[in-house]
Each structure stands twice: as C-alpha cells, then as structure tokens.
C-alpha cells in the first residue's frame, strides 16, 4: 500500500534543502517571487513572497488573481514604530499570533486603493525612507504584519521567513506575501503548492529548510 509522501519527499524534486534555499534566495535577489511552505502540523499552507522594494503591478495582479487577495506587507518592528502603525487589536488571540497592524493606504497617488497599481503604490509609499506616518491613511487595503525580532528561532511563521529571505538576498527587510488558494476556494496544501510552483516556475522552500540551515550554521 502506498504511503502518503512527506514534506521532504514532495519537495525533493526542487533539490536538497540547501539547493532550495539557494534557488529561493537568487529569485528574491532578482526581484522575483517564491513559495514558502510551513510545517504540516502548523498552518500547512504556502505563501507567495516578493521583495517589497521590487514588487511590480504585474506581480501584484498575479497575487490578487491567484491567491487569497489578502496582500500583506511584512516589516520589522522598528519600521512599524517609525510609521506609527499599532497592532490591529490590543489583545492578539489569533491561533498563531500573527501580528497584524492596522491596515494602510497611501494618502496620495491612489483611487479606491483596491487595484493592483494602488496596492503597489501603498507598499512603495510605506517602505520609502522618507515615509512619515501622515503619508499613510488608515484603514486601507494593504495589511502590514510585524515580524518577530527573534526571527525563525522565535517564531516559525511565513512572516519571519519573509524577512529571513530578504536578508539572505541582500534586499531591504520588507516583503509582500499572499496565501495560495485552490480555484475552488480551499487553501492549497503541499501537493497543490508543488503543482502550482511547477506551473508558474516558482522556487519553493520550506520554513523547515530555513530554520534547519540556521541551526547548522549555529553549530558549525
């Protein structure tokens, strides 16, 4: 009787963990997107991640068209403090503690804020070095999330994996992510994510790959 394939088994077509990391980092370095999957005993989901400082309107349209449509902007804590973006709620009771802040919109250069172009404008505004709190309206159609300062050692989430990949690729510590869904509206699990990655020529890497690499480096 055939046994269901494990995470590692399904991901093996994309190479070893080290090769998967290298491919993902190179794609991020070039301004492209990657799929990051978490543990099968956690959310067991995959997010498409792009570097925020390179996101294009076409890439944003792809996220809106093929994913959940909830486009998130991942930022470090110090950046969110500078922009005066407080937590969405005072007491976070989310199952995995995802640290959403209030949602945002660029004050200028957008219409309704919903279009791909408007969301890119909002992201570019928020990550600009000279952005001030008053440059962002609240609420809006882009959802910032605070990355745990302790990184993947503190929280094995897509949020922390996003910042980890940006650092590895030498990009600004800011990323855009959106969860991959199936056409029928259900969440894509690993078999569907692998097929999606192949169809759209996206590297795929797991949070376990990234966390394991950090552990190896710490004992080397």
Automatic annotation (TrEMBL):
Q: Which reaction does it catalyse?
A: D-ribulose 5-phosphate = (2S)-2-hydroxy-3-oxobutyl phosphate + formate + H(+)
- Please list the GO biological process terms of this entry: riboflavin biosynthetic process
Q: How is its cofactor bound, per UniProt?
A: Binds 2 divalent metal cations per subunit. Magnesium or manganese.
Entry keyword Metal-binding: yes
Q: Which positions in this protein are listed as binding Mg(2+) 2?
A: 43, 158
Could you tell me which Pfam families the record lists for this protein?
A: DHBP_synthase
Please give the pathway this protein is involved in: Cofactor biosynthesis; riboflavin biosynthesis; 2-hydroxy-3-oxobutyl phosphate from D-ribulose 5-phosphate: step 1/1
Q: Which residue positions hold the site described Essential for catalytic activity?
A: 141, 179
Q: What's its EC?
A: 4.1.99.12
Molecular function (GO) terms for this protein are: 3,4-dihydroxy-2-butanone-4-phosphate synthase activity; magnesium ion binding; manganese ion binding
Cofactor(s) recorded in Swiss-Prot or TrEMBL: Mg(2+); Mn(2+)
Q: What is this protein called?
A: 3,4-dihydroxy-2-butanone 4-phosphate synthase
């Amino acid at each position: 009787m055939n046994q269901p394939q494990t995470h590692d088994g399904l991901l093996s077509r994309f190479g070893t963990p080290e090769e998967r990391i290298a491919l993902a980092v190179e794609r991020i370095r070039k301004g492209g997107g990657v799929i990051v999957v978490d543990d099968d005993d956690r959310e067991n989901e995959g997010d498409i991640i792009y570097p925020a400082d390179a996101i294009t309107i076409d890439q944003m349209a792809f996220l809106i068209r093929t994913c959940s449509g909830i486009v998130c902007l991942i930022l470090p804590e110090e950046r969110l403090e500078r922009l005066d973006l407080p937590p969405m709620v005072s007491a976070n009771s989310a199952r995995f503690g995802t640290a959403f802040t209030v949602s945002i919109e660029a004050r200028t250069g957008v219409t309704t804020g919903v279009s791909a172009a408007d969301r890119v404008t909002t992201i570019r505004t928020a990550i600009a070095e000279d952005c001030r709190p008053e440059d962002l309206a609240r609420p809006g159609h882009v959802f910032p999330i605070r990355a745990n300062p302790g990184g993947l050692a503190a929280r094995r989430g897509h949020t922390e994996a996003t910042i980890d990949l940006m650092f590895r690729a030498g990009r600004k510590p800011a990323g855009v992510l959106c969860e991959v869904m199936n056409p029928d509206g259900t969440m894509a699990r690993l078999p569907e994510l692998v097929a999606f990655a192949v169809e759209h020529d996206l590297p795929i890497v797991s949070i376990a790959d990234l966390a394991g690499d950090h552990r190896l480096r710490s004992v080397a």
